[in-house]
Model the fold of this input.
Amino acid sequence: MVAAVTRSLSDASKKSCPDANHRSPDRDCCFCLTMQRHLTTYTEDLILSHVLNASSSWRACDQNSRQAVSADDTYPGGATLSTTSKRGLLDQAGQAMKNTPIWRSVFRHGYPDTPLNQSLIMMGNVFLHLHPVKVSRQAMRITYTYCLGGISFFLFLVLTITGVFLMFYYIPADQQAYGNIQALASTVAFGEIVRNMHRWAAHLMVISVSLHMIRVFYHGAYKAPREFNWVIGTVLFLLTLLLSFSGYLLPWDQIGVLAIQVGTNMANYAPVVGDAVHRVLIGGLDQYPTQATLIRFYTLHVLFFPLVAAIMMAVHFWRIRKDGGEAGPPPPSRREVVAKLAETASHS
Ligand code: HEM
Done:
C-alpha cells in the first residue's frame, strides 16, 4: 500500500508541481513538502485530491523566498493543523474532530469558494456528481425543458412502486386475474386508488415521454454530441409503449383481451418473420390470447421491460452528464448582442 501511495505520490508530484525543476521533492518547496506530509496520512485516492489542494496552497505561499508553509496548513474539509495559534477548548475539540479520518472521509474538500473546491465537491458527492460540474444558465430555466424528462422518470418510479403493490394481489392466471383486479376495489385497503395511480401514471408517462421527445427535437438537442442519447431515447420511447401495451392484457377484461388479439395479429403482417413473431407473442398457434399469452405478457411487463428501461435510463442520464448537461439555447449572435445594446442605450 505504502509503495503504491509513494509511487502515485511521486508520479503526481512530478506531474503537478508547478516548478518544472522539481523532478524529485525539493526541501524548500512548500508543494513538495506538503506532498510528503500527506504521504504518511492519506490513502492513494485522497492524495490525488491533495495534489490539487497543495497546488493551490503553493500558489498562496511566498514564491520569492520559497518558504514552506508550515504553521497553518489547510486540509480538506476546512481543517487546519496549527502548531502556533492559541485556541479555546471548544475550538480545539472542533479541530480534533475535523482531523479524524472519519470526518475527512466525509468532508473531503474545503468550503466551495473557489472554482477548484466547487469542482471537487461536485465530483465527490454521489448526488451532485450526477450533474456536470458546470451547466448553462439558460438551459436551467424551467421553461426550457419543462422538466419533461424528469417528469417521465418520476412517473416511472411511481409505476414501479405502485406496480410492486399490485403484484402482492395479482395472480397471472386466466381463471383468477379478472377477479383479483375486481377485488382491489372491494376487499383490498387502498387497492382501487393504487390501481388507478398505476393506470394514470402509465397514460401520463406515454404523454410526457412523447412531449419530451418533441421538446428535444424542437431544440435540436439530438445533434452532436447528443446523437447517441437520442438513439437511447428512442429505445426508451419504444419501451414505454411496450410497457403500456403489455400491461393492457393483465386485467384480463374484454377490452384488454381483444386489444391484444388485434395487436398480436398485426405482427402476422410483418414480412418473413411475421408468423414466428405472432407465435412467440401469443404463446402457440392460437389466434387469440390464452393462459400462455397472459404469463408471457406478465413476465415481460413486470420484469423484462422495466429492467431494460431502468438500465437504459441509467445510460441516458449518464450520457446527459457526459455530453455536458442540457444542450441549452445557442448563445446570441453578434448581431443580436449589438441590437440589444442599442436598444438598452436608446432607453437610457
Ligand atoms: C423513459 C423515458 C425518458 C426519460 C425518463 C428521460 C429522461 C430525461 C431527462 C431527466 C433529461 C434531462 C432534461 C429534461 O428533463 O428534459 C433528458 C434529456 C434528454 N433526453 Fe430523455 N428521457 C426519456 C426519453 C427520451 C426520448 C424518447 C428521447 C428521444 C428520442 C430522449 C432524448 C433525450 C435527449 C437528446 C436529452 C438531452 C436534451 C438536451 O440536452 O437538451 N429522451 N431525458
Notes: Residues 2-128 form one domain. Residues 145, 147-150, 152-153, 156, 209, 212-213, 216, 219, 221-222, 226, 229-230, 233-234, 236-237, 240, 313, 316, 320, 326-327 surround protoporphyrin IX containing FE (CB under 6 Å). Residues 291-322 form the longest helix (32 residues). The CA atoms of residues 132 and 321 lie 5 Å apart.
